[in-house]
Predict the 3D structure of the following.
Amino acid sequence: MVTEFFMPMKKVPTVTHQQKQVTVVNDKPVFYEPAELKAARAMLMAHLGQNVPQRTYSRPVRLIVKWCFPITGKHGDGEYKHTKPDIDNSQKLLFDCMTDLRFWKDDALVVSLIAEKFWARLSGIYIRIEEV
């Protein structure tokens, strides 16, 4: 089984899962998502929700993700983006959203990950999932 799609976005999320906040309530730490992280999660859920496979992956998969950020400055189309956000941090929020939408039973099934980030004329996120 293979699932492949591109989600065009004017603004690709740059907020990461690591930006959760903590507060203390009754002497206990309580973690929460700030508004910017909630908005990024909602945007990803809306875009991903249109591409959920008919069958939930239950076997190991290879995930290919290409983050395509709007071109700024003197960058060229397809040029690697080597500035923030860190690619490893971006993956966590994406994985959580895909798990919540039941792309797979658990993100532990992702045994191979190829993730890249680029400057691009057409901004958005390309995703390919294939059973291995």
